[in-house]
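Raw record, unedited: L-serine dehydratase
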Amino acid sequence: MPSTPIITSVFDLFKMGPGPSSSHTIGPMKAAFDFRQRLASLPADVQHQAEAIHIYLYGSLSATGKGHGTDRAVIAGLLGWQPETTDPVALMALLRDPALVYTVAVGAETIGLGPQHIHFERKRYESPYANTMVLQLRAGDELLHSEEYYSIGGGFILRKGEPETDPASVAVPYPYSTMTELKAQLTTHALTLDELMMANEMGITGRSRTEVNARIDQLLDFMHKAVRRGLRHTGVLPGSIKLSRKAPILFRKAKGMSHSSDSFLIFLNAYCLAASEENAAGGIVVTAPTSGASGVIPGLTYLAKKHFHYDRATLRAGLLAAAAVGFLVKHNASISGAEMGCMGEIGTASAMGAAFLTRCAQTSDDIGAIEAAAEIGIEHHLGMTCDPIGGYVQIPCIERNAMGAVKAYNAFLLATSGAASFQKISLDAVIKVMKATGRDMSTKYKETSEAGLALSATEC
């Protein structure tokens, strides 16, 4: 049995919430909501003394938090909003008027909260994670209560001092922590990947097979709604870059090229840009595995549905294969741009997309081909920087989603060409390389807007 088996749910990896960044928007909103809940449990006399809440943002949350909407997300969480039910229009309206004071409940008491209470700290903060936020309840200079949170990518958060879930306490029938261990479980128990993933998901969440399938269908529906919205919406995206949406233009062009072999790729690019532009506009998207990479898999699944005409059961099986790859990267490296650069986001999404396509194309899953496709997807994103211009999830992020999807499609073609068994690098090996590369990469290239394309902001 693996020492620390994967106990992540499919529905934690794929989460619905507002863009533009899962680590900067969904994660901080969840952390702020948790803080609000903890304040409600404080003794009444402490609540009565409360005068202010102060939020300190460090690392990438500070460097690109303004462009990523972290300040709005924190306000939303303290107001009691949660990602899945947030109105994106209302979220974008927060802090539009800097003079507006928001009323936050502290148990039976209320206190005012404004932009002056959010501090984008540029100094170094000793923390085990790149994205750190500290929330404090104060009475003047007196600290009444404080919590430290880490946003670790994909909307996942950790609270300092909170014990992690003991994997032994979760009923996972087929535990694994690496692809090697996953394949051993499949061989030992004569299982398909579909069967193993479904059994583990049912054990982790307590949901029935019918409930899991219904929830996966809901995720696919949300992904495809984002694509359809993006194909309709025109105009300029929020922020100082004034970037125009391209997806509707590409979609119209593709429809006018139905007899050209290039139309297929243009359709795929349009679908990925559509979902990614919706994310950049703060719309509701699905982390796949992050919001910054939320154009890759939605674009590929939309393509699979509309052009390949795969049925629901096939799309579900493909999404479970994608989740397996996402779990392995998250468990053994990271899906956070602040930790891994963009190879952690688009690289993982491309690998997941390659696994999705490979599984959908099979009559019964061939784990060797799925592994080869995922490995190729990651291998050709190694070292990719995360250098968003102006801190907005727009340039190069939006086009990078389309490029990641195209690479996923090519990885699928390479892996299913009949030569998957010739692949020399395993998925486990490339994930180790990914982790080492992220560790060695300069912090400037990991979602700080301090290097790379981010320095082209003055030219936009």
